[in-house]
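ugh ok fine here u go
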Amino acid sequence: MPAYLLDVDTGIDDALALAYLAALPETEFVAVTASPGNVDADQVARNTLALLELCGRPGVEVAVGARTPLSIPLLTTPETHGPQGIGYAVLPEPEGRLSPRNAVDLWIEHAWARPGELTALITAPLTNFALALRKEPALPDLLAKVVIMGGAFYHQGNTTPTAEWNTHVDPHAAKEVYAAYRGRPYEKLPIVCSLDTTERMELHPAHVAALAEAAGAAVPELVLPGQPEGQRSTSDNTLVRHLSDALRFYFEFHRLYDQGYLAHVHDFFAAGVAAGTLEYSARPATADVETESPLLIGTTVADFRGLWGAPPNARIVSGNNPEQAFRELVSAVGNLARRVR
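structure:
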């Protein structure tokens, strides 16, 4: 059974990633931890706990770690994900309680308890993971696989012209994480899902309609560009309704920035890479992050040719298959929505 440690900043695309993993019948959520990013860490944790319960996964330990980046003030993004982080969706109050434990301690404890068994998926700024590596440098050896959503290498940034959001929020943490992996065996290097390939994951209104159909919803779910902004879903399927309300906000945001009425679902792709269900290819590289230049802070750089003379510290995803990915998403999450309706 695949067992995961997750660190998230839920987040519309984090929410879709969590729903997707919850839909896979063999998934074990060992712990899910909250980093500040799309919203503050406490809101992230509440969103995550409520969403897991909505997806039929009660009882998962959800914990808060850091509440600020390592060295710079926290920047959140209500314009992208909404004031509560999940667009227009209003999640029910969770029945469970947040863990009183610290996220960093949880990661270290679980990694030591199950060496070589756990897959780490980080779809948030790398703050908590950097702190865990500071406290336990053996984590790269203890974890079976690490997948990170972050960075932009040969691709325009989505926060500054050169920087991707997760890395820009805490560039110092990302720099520390990459440094911790220098000289590690190839199979232990983190798999990095950057904007170069995650922005190929364009979710469209037709995918929302297909998801509702797969869920057995009584009426079609139409999220269309001509509808009033903020229109709420009336779907009879609870999970479809909440995901639709979240995604409508994301569609409107992308349209506002001239990207079309669509949503780049970065974190879903990273989740599929972690689960081994989505097609992708990757290349080894030495990655680093700019932390000093005001113009370029948060910029990720990859040396694929060994020009720095430093060993690789990442496997950077270079290719993927969006058509296959969305067939998988609609099938898996549609079946989940049918079960938990």
